[in-house]
Amino acid sequence: GNTKEYNFTVSYAFWAPDCVERSIIVVNGQYPGPAIDVQRGDRVIVRVTNQLYAEGISIHWHGILQTGGSAYMDGSAYVSHCPILPHETFVYNFTVPDQVGTFWWHGHNAGHSSEGFYGSFVVRPNPAFGDTEPFQADGESMLLMNDWWHRSHQDQFIGLDIPQNPTSDFRFVGEPQSLLLNGRGQYNCSLLASVPAAYSAGDALNCSTTSPQCSPNTVIGPITPNSTHRLRIVNTGSLSFLNIAIEGHNMTVVAADANYVTPVSVKYLDVWAGQRYDVLITADQPVANYWITVTVRGRRPNTPPGRWALQYAGAPAGLPTTNASALAAQQPAWDNQNFTLAQQNLYTSLGGSNLTDPVAQNPTRQIVLVNSQNRVDGRKRNVLNGVAYVDPMTPITHTLFFNMTGGYTTGLISDQPPLTYNYIKTIGSPDNYTLATGQSVFEVNEGDVIDVVLQNGVTLVNASDPHPWHLHGMDFWVLGSAAGENFNGSTAKLNTVNPVYRSTVGLIAYGWTYIRFVASNPGPWFFHCHLISHMHMGMNTVINIKPASGVYPAPPPGSQMCGMVTPLVLQDFF
Ligand code: C2O
Ligand code: CU
């Protein structure tokens, strides 16, 4: 392979992605950040310089499996490495493993990915290795779509952290103000009259349809009439589960999270936060402009649909003349769980699945993770089997390599919820559930075959939220999912023949999702709900795969130090 080098300088800037100006995080002065575009087998070197004023940063290459001992390059702050402090440069250096398709990168410390700190990452087939793809496209476009707030992640987190008292507990930032496509959308400034006073004062000042980045519609294309066009669709958002539709065109889904699926045609495509889909569209309609509309699913929306244009080459400049709202109105309703479930279970691996490997047919361990909400140390937290995750002081890779005790807590979280759980009941103190805060690391052996049952419980307001679960380090098979029930131990609803293999999967409200993976990649891997607020509230865990060799790789030269490593290293000087 070749070596592809990038320099990323990360800073704050004023920006008005939806016509309302606020401070956001830009990379090299751009939002979205620079696109990474490489071939399978390439070495990727990204020199990241932090020019934020006072916050540590890290970058996760979402979906890229850091195989071959590069767990340190995974960019999950406090799991993979220490945050890169202001003024510092850290060099990410890894080989793109045996993967081809659509990925993305994003800040992975605190709420940075919701500040605009992300970009696309494409891995192309490598002709030098004779790579081909099982479909053909004449052209392609990247569609990064996400929810957007006028408030910063700090404001959001402060609200989530307000300690409980009987009358004022927790201040949720609420549903997003806008939906963006490739960093642009349009907030309706006239709506400011009806938003809470705390918002409107500042927003009204900063809302202007002549703001430099504000554009009425992002245009995708122009695409060539009668060609096949590939759309690389990523939900880079922080909260919203999105559905995308293209006026007059079906989408043939050919890959999910950079794994080929049996091609399947859909009209309305669900994309959970963190997920990626490659779809093909055939430009067989009259030469014109067509709406692309995006709606919010899974949570009662309070955000106008996003609308952008797909332009055919030769179409007049300007917007479609049809009614975008009519298209958005046809998309599945936010609470249509049957649609969600049917589509999630629609995808199968192309040409069977490596799950047919006898090894992968025999799980060695089953972990049942029940998520619910409770008050832990006075704050509302999202707990997994009673445990709310907090970042450790020392990155887990360091704790493992230096073999330090006390770097993270173990044994806090059990493989099974300790009580007979019920999806319609909050798991918490009423059941004498022990609640704890810590790192809840699962220690597994290299080569283990791990089943995880994600069981959705209820929140403190007796509701159940949808959650997109993402595993670092390895992809997993989605054996099945259901809504409105407890997983009852039966394998009857599981597909062990050709399940889709992917990296982020939805967990439906009041439901369960069953996944399996082979613990093939040694190192500590973050496993979490991809919603930024839920991560902040503790809905994370770490799967540490102990290397069969017993040896953890050393942190690379030039690594930042923090936590317990700093005194360990400094002691040599005194
Ligand atoms: Cu895209 Cu741990 O995240
Ligand atoms: Cu969640």
TrEMBL record:
Its cofactor is Cu cation. InterPro entries: Cu-oxidase-like_N (IPR011707), Cu-oxidase_2nd (IPR001117), Cu-oxidase_C (IPR011706), Cu-oxidase_fam (IPR045087), Cu_oxidase_CS (IPR033138), Cu_oxidase_Cu_BS (IPR002355), Cupredoxin (IPR008972). Gene3D superfamilies: Cupredoxins - blue copper proteins. Pfam families: Cu-oxidase (PF00394), Cu-oxidase_2 (PF07731), Cu-oxidase_3 (PF07732). It comes from the Eukaryota. GO terms for molecular function: copper ion binding; oxidoreductase activity. Belongs to the multicopper oxidase family. PANTHER family: FI03373P-RELATED (PTHR11709:SF394), MULTI-COPPER OXIDASE (PTHR11709). Keywords: Copper, Metal-binding, Oxidoreductase, Signal. It comes from Klebsormidium nitens (Green alga). This is Putative L-ascorbate oxidase. Residues 10-126, 142-314, 431-547 form the Plastocyanin-like domain. Transmembrane segments: none annotated. The lineage of its organism: Eukaryota, Viridiplantae, Streptophyta, Klebsormidiophyceae, Klebsormidiales.
